[in-house]
Amino acid sequence: MDLHSNIYVAGHNGLVGSAIVRALEGADYQHIITRTSRELDLRNKEAVDHFFETEPVDYVFLAAAKVGGILANNEYPADFIRDNLLIQTNVIDAAYRANVSKLLFLGSTCIYPKFAPQPLREEYLLTGELEPTNEAYAIAKIAGIKMCQSYNRQYGTRFISVMPTNLYGPGDNFDLQTSHVLPALIRKFHEAKLNQAPTVEVWGSGTPRREFLHSDDLAEASLFLMNNYEGNEIVNIGVGEDISIRELAERVKDVVGYEGEITFNTSAPDGTPRKLVDVSRIAGLGWSARISLEEGLRSVYEAFQGLNLVEQ
Ligand code: GDP
């Protein structure tokens, strides 16, 4: 990309898309193109075709997707598979026909097989059964990766796919029914502190392990790969370290300054026992994450408190 390229960030209001826009602006890219979902419904093929036919686009960051935590994925699998298949199929195909120079598609590490060896290497994709709670989402994302690779093979496009680990950051979803664990715990501990509640309930056994990547790190990695990576193979993006949900709960408790007890609701699902990514491919290309979990948690909690004040 050069500073005058036309760069379309699909999903710019989301956790990932907003971080990519911040990173592009920070690096002085001049022509960042965005559309809200109201202006352009990416599930609508005609609207997407019209957009790519009328707007000159050189690069696409495809960060638009229907995403959610374990509960939402489990309860609304039809919405997850339909919306993601529609969004990615429409954008990837229209981008090809519009001759865009390069496209970056976002997969996710939750689409690796449930019991794949750890740390997860890129070649483990499609080597085993998926986690049932997010199978519909995973099938859609795997289709997106295969679509990029197939277009590259058949049409000579340069569509790359990345596999970010669990993400968090400013502008995250803090709705307890649909969010991922990290923002959920920030909200739960914050509200428990305000209400002087004696306990905070954490779902599951607390033993599953997760790796957490700040969205600003993911955005930096995405720009880095757009500018430096041409391969057909997927690339993991992570920090290379994980912690248990119990440890995460304790860290969030400390950052928030909550003094009560943590309880575990073992009737709630645990999901995949572990999903730590092997980051050697991206490290070999010359990129590694910079934001520590401690620093990231503090900044997200600060942003969350700011958001609450504005809302009140
Ligand atoms: P996953 O990484 O796809 O499994 O999605 P989540 O981030 O939603 O959940 C990660 C783990 O955190 C699972 O074992 C959840 O049961 C656990 N967890 C504990 N408390 C919560 C909570 O309040 N919300 C969510 N979403 N997960 C929680």
From TrEMBL:
Q: Give the residues annotated as active site.
A: Y137
Q: Which residues bind NADP(+)?
A: 11-17, 106-109, 141, 164-167, 180
Top class in the EC scheme: oxidoreductase
Q: Which UniProt keywords apply?
A: Isomerase, Multifunctional enzyme, NADP, Oxidoreductase
Q: Which Pfam families match?
A: Epimerase
Tell me the pathway. Nucleotide-sugar biosynthesis; GDP-L-fucose biosynthesis via de novo pathway; GDP-L-fucose from GDP-alpha-D-mannose: step 2/2
Output one GO BP term: 'de novo' GDP-L-fucose biosynthetic process
User: Where along the sequence does the record put site: Important for catalytic activity?
Assistant: S108, C110
Keyword set includes Secreted: no
Q: Which Gene3D superfamilies match?
A: NAD(P)-binding Rossmann-like Domain (3.40.50.720), UDP-galactose 4-epimerase, domain 1 (3.90.25.10)
What are the GO MF terms of this UniProt record?
Answer: GDP-L-fucose synthase activity; isomerase activity; NADP+ binding
CDD domains according to UniProt: GDP_FS_SDR_e
Enzyme Commission no: 1.1.1.271
Q: Which residues form the NAD-dependent epimerase/dehydratase domain?
A: 7-238
SUPFAM superfamilies attached to this UniProt entry: NAD(P)-binding Rossmann-fold domains
Q: Which residues bind substrate?
A: K188, W203, R210, D270
Q: Which reaction(s) are listed as its catalytic activity?
A: GDP-beta-L-fucose + NADP(+) = GDP-4-dehydro-alpha-D-rhamnose + NADPH + H(+)
For whether the record's keyword set contains Cytoplasm, the answer is no
Q: Which family does it belong to?
A: Belongs to the NAD(P)-dependent epimerase/dehydratase family. Fucose synthase subfamily.
Its biological function?
Answer: Catalyzes the two-step NADP-dependent conversion of GDP-4-dehydro-6-deoxy-D-mannose to GDP-fucose, involving an epimerase and a reductase reaction.
The family database entries (PANTHER family) matched by this protein are listed as: GDP-L-FUCOSE SYNTHASE (PTHR43238:SF1)
HAMAP family this protein is in? Answer: GDP_fucose_synth (MF_00956)
* Name of the protein: GDP-L-fucose synthase
